[in-house]
Backbone:
């Protein structure tokens, strides 16, 4: 198996090293793992692409490249430049430092990389490690992802529909709970949740020169979500797997809107 990996935390991020270990296990002795990751951290860029300016790409070592762009840029560079003659069988993005459950998924560069791969017709999985009191200060905060990631991906690949009906291809959002590996209770297939009563916001600060700057501020990551949704199951100790598509249509509203314009 030939696997392309990327992330949004940058080429030197510890989560990318974890993902490389997982990918090597999946690829097997005769397989190949190729890395094309951002030269610098790209957290929160979503599915952004560098449409209006070029990006530099540098070979850092055997099968290892850094690109001055977003995760989606890195996937495009991997598919159409680095591996243009030998497309990968699978694209993995992560392992992100912090969860991409609930509304975080909409901002995530990690998911943006997986989404771009799916738009290019390639199976893709985004992986993220939830942080919390039980693992944030651990020697290996990625332990749950490191020890359970390979098996979760194998099961997803085994059940990924071979016939995608010509529409938007599935990709998968996997979040590992904020607990040590031994405390993981299992895996749940979940819908994307939404944290109630919390939003991203800004926090203003004035620089020594008097200029005003705004820091983006995240919401409470332990705010409740609907039972059975991704973040809810993560906080209960379960790995969540959420099948996704890039189709943003609110299908439940199509008929009502058609009636309004009849």
Residues:
């Amino acid at each position: 198996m030939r696997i392309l990996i990327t992330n949004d935390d940058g080429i030197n991020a510890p989560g990318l090293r974890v993902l490389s270990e997982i990918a090597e296990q999946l690829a097997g002795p005769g397989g190949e793992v190729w890395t094309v990751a951002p030269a610098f951290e790209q957290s929160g860029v979503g599915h952004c692409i560098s449409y209006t300016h070029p990006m530099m790409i540098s070979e850092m070592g055997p099968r290892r490249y850094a690109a001055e762009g977003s995760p989606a840029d890195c996937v495009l560079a991997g598919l159409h430049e680095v591996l243009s003659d030998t497309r990968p069988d699978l694209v993995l993005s992560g392992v992100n430092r912090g969860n991409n459950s609930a509304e975080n998924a909409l901002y995530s560069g990690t998911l943006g990389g997986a989404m771009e791969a799916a738009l290019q017709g390639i199976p893709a999985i985004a992986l993220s490690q939830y942080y919390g009191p039980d693992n944030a200060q651990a020697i290996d905060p990625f332990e749950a992802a490191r020890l359970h990631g390979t098996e979760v991906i194998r099961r997803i690949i085994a059940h990924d529909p071979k016939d995608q009906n010509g529409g938007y291809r599935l990709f998968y959002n996997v979040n590992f709970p904020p607990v040590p590996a031994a405390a993981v209770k299992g895996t749940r297939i979940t819908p994307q949740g939404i944290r109630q009563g919390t939003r991203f916001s800004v926090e203003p600060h004035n620089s020594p020169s008097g200029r005003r700057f705004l820091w983006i501020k995240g919401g409470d990551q332990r705010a409740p979500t609907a039972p059975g949704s991704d973040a809810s199951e993560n906080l209960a100790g379960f790995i969540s797997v959420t099948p996704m598509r890039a189709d943003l249509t609110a299908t439940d509203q199509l008929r009502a809107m058609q009636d309004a314009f009849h």
